[in-house]
Structures are given as structure tokens and as C-alpha cells.
Design a protein that fits this description.
Elements lengths: L19 H15 L9 H20 L13 H14 L3 H15 L16 H6 L1 H19 L4 H18 L5 H17 L6 H24 L2 H7 L2
Length: 235
């Protein structure tokens, strides 16, 4: 088990099992599918599931629908170990994984780009992938995830990290909280596809619980800072 003071290697652009060209090609396939073309990135059942999820999430965002959340059960010691050990492998490819996550997010859920003035009007996945601002934000996401993983044995530190993230996105960036749920799903997909040798179904279940905990905590912080009142008053 990693100790609470474990420090992972700094985020770097090492070679991911999925090459950069292949990453962009996958995003292109999704784009073609959305335009009515053919693509085979996912099995038909997974594509249908993703389409249903995308429609549900964007409907929730548009209608202001709220989740009725229950607090997830605490991570067990075994689950913490599985998350930390799998993350050690993922974080070796930090930058490429972060870019893959954001490309998937923006292609499948284009409304998420509204919060990024630098590339909200970019539709071409190749152009998105080259964006320095996208890579910068990918870096931030991966480093935040790294801090969370390092804090699994320190609940106070984890709560503090989530509080900073939640308040910043509610008050400064004014991001609808449903996008944290959407991003969590994208993270799980990318990790499961690109690191299937370490992100087994059991490990994926542990990650699902962690990200559900993150979403629960973030939404609680949004409520605490008066998000409902704020969002309704700002239109």
C-alpha cells in the first residue's frame, strides 16, 4: 500500500499505449458517427449507452434537473490500494491521458466547451488536440486527480481539495455541477479502455465509488455556496 506521503512522478508527456494519431482518429470517428457516418470505435451497445447517457446529462443541464444523491459508502482499505496502484500506472502517461479525457469529453458532450473561451468554437478534434490551452487544462485535471489519490488516507486533506475545486467552479467559473458527473463517466471510460490490464472490473468499481464520492462532495459544496440561488439569479 502506498503511504499517505507518496509522491508520484511529475505529469509528463510519455507515450501512451494509444498513440496521439490514434487518439485523434478515435475522436474523428465519434464526430463522424454524430454526423451520421460509420465508425467502429465502440461496440453498438456501448455507443447506444453513451448516446443515452449524453442525452440524459445534457437534458439535466438544460432543464436544471437535480440529482437525488446518497452519500457513497467509504472506500475500504482494499479499494484505496487498488486505486493507488492503478493510478501509478496511469500517471506515468499523465499528459496524454488528460488530453484523451478532454477530447472524449468535448466530442461527446460539446456543450462542455462553453466554459472555455479559448477553444469553445473549435470542432475539429485535431485542432482541439493541438490546443495549448486544452493541454494546460488537461494538466490541471490530472494533477487534481493525483492530489486526490495521494489524499485517500487523509480525509481532511481530500475534503479541503474538493472544497477549493467546488467553490472555484461554482463561484468563479460558474460551471453547472452536472459536468462533474459527465467528466467522471468519461474518466472511467478512458481508464477502462486504455489501461484494461490494471483497471479490471473490480478496480473500475473502486474508481466508480471514488468519483461518486467526489461528485457528492462537489454538489454539497455547490449547495453550500448557494448555487441554486446564484444560477437562477444569473439566468
Amino acid at each position: 500500500m502506498f503511504s499517505s506521503n507518496t509522491t508520484y512522478k511529475a505529469c509528463s508527456s510519455l507515450t501512451l499505449s494509444l498513440s496521439r494519431d490514434s487518439k485523434v482518429e478515435r475522436a474523428k470517428i465519434v464526430t463522424r458517427e454524430k454526423k451520421g457516418g460509420k465508425g467502429h470505435r465502440f461496440s453498438s451497445s456501448l455507443t447506444k449507452k453513451e448516446t443515452q447517457t449524453r442525452k440524459k446529462m445534457e437534458r439535466m443541464q438544460a432543464e436544471g434537473e437535480e440529482d437525488h444523491l446518497e452519500r457513497p459508502s467509504p472506500l475500504t482499505d482494499k479499494e484505496r490500494v487498488m486505486i493507488q496502484e492503478s493510478w501509478a500506472k496511469v500517471y506515468q502517461n499523465c499528459e496524454d491521458v488528460g488530453v484523451a479525457i478532454l477530447l472524449r469529453l468535448f466530442v461527446n458532450f460539446p456543450s462542455a466547451k462553453q466554459y472555455f473561451s479559448q477553444f469553445k468554437n473549435i470542432e475539429d478534434p485535431e485542432e482541439l488536440e493541438r490546443s495549448a490551452q486544452l493541454r494546460k487544462h488537461a494538466h490541471r485535471i490530472m494533477n487534481s486527480l493525483n492530489t486526490l489519490v495521494e489524499s485517500l488516507d487523509n480525509s481532511d486533506k481530500m475534503a479541503s481539495v474538493l472544497r477549493v475545486v467546488g467553490k472555484a467552479h461554482a463561484l468563479r467559473h460558474k460551471v453547472e455541477p452536472v459536468y462533474f458527473k459527465i467528466l467522471s463517466g468519461v474518466i472511467l471510460e478512458v481508464l477502462g479502455e486504455e489501461f484494461s490490464e490494471v483497471v479490471t472490473p473490480e478496480v473500475a468499481a473502486a474508481w466508480t465509488k471514488l468519483l461518486a464520492t467526489v461528485y457528492f462532495s462537489i454538489t454539497a459544496i455547490y449547495e453550500e455556496v448557494g448555487w441554486t440561488k446564484l444560477s437562477s439569479s444569473t439566468g
